[in-house]
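Dear support,

I submitted the protein below through the web form. The confirmation email said the job was done, but the results page showed an empty box. After a refresh the structure appeared. I'm attaching both so you can tell me whether what I see now is the final result or a partial one.
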Amino acid sequence: MTDEAVAGARGPASRSARSVGATATSPAVSLSGVHMSYGRRPVLRGVSCSFPAGAISVVLGGSGSGKSTVLKLIGGLIKASAGRIDVAGRNVVGLRESELYVVRRSLGMMFQNGALLDSMSVFDNLAFPLREHSDLGRDEITARVHESLAAVGLEDVDDLLPRELSGGMVKRVALARALVGHPEILLVDEPFSGLDPLSTKLIEALLVRINRQHGMTMIVVSHHIPSTMRMADRIVLLLPDTVVEGAPAELRSSEDVRVRHFLTEETDDSEAVLAKAAEFEQGERRPERRGGAGAHP
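What the results page shows now:
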């Protein structure tokens, strides 16, 4: 992240300002009375919640509470047994695969472990969905790939393979791939898992910057409380018997002791995180090249 980008992230579009705007808009995604089971094991029981357009919403909950299941349901990767799931104005429950494909074009997905194709270079991992699902030409694909890599602060990484990347760089490449299709809604599954504290703060800062610059709706599943309290406009907390929604400050002062205890953890100031992430990124922005330049289609 450049100094200019950090300065932009510190500008008028503060979190409180974005929160006010987000609550004034209709939800980009909403769940109503959703039930979901894996075999005989129920995971979601009548879950209802909403995710405002243009906001960063973070889904929290204990192990097995159904956090990642919510993302999969929104993306149509699994099917609810009952209820309604509206994504960009369309109920995805009961849609055929061909109809889901149309909805998915408005979505980007950053998977928990990156889900990069091991045999493909960074460039080809990003270019693959564009080659398969768009009419873009070679030069347009190249420009789109480099635009997405630049958005996450990476350059000179085209020819690297996933095994040559650090854990933090895998996350950033996965984020770049999720952005390459210019989605309206970004689904992010556990972006901080397996990362050291500095890499965690870098990914957090990137997500905040992308949201602030593009007004992109983000739905983030996480277990990392400090990042959640800094970056979230809205929190959706999945408890065993209910769903609690609201701004971080609202939930922290909740009358429900379970909510207060879940959110109790020391946090850093958000602006300090952005500054630290900018300094740390300088060490990873231009990784050592491990192979010669390759031709890109």
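Response: this is the final, complete result; the empty box was a page-load delay. Residues 197-214 form the longest helix (18 residues).
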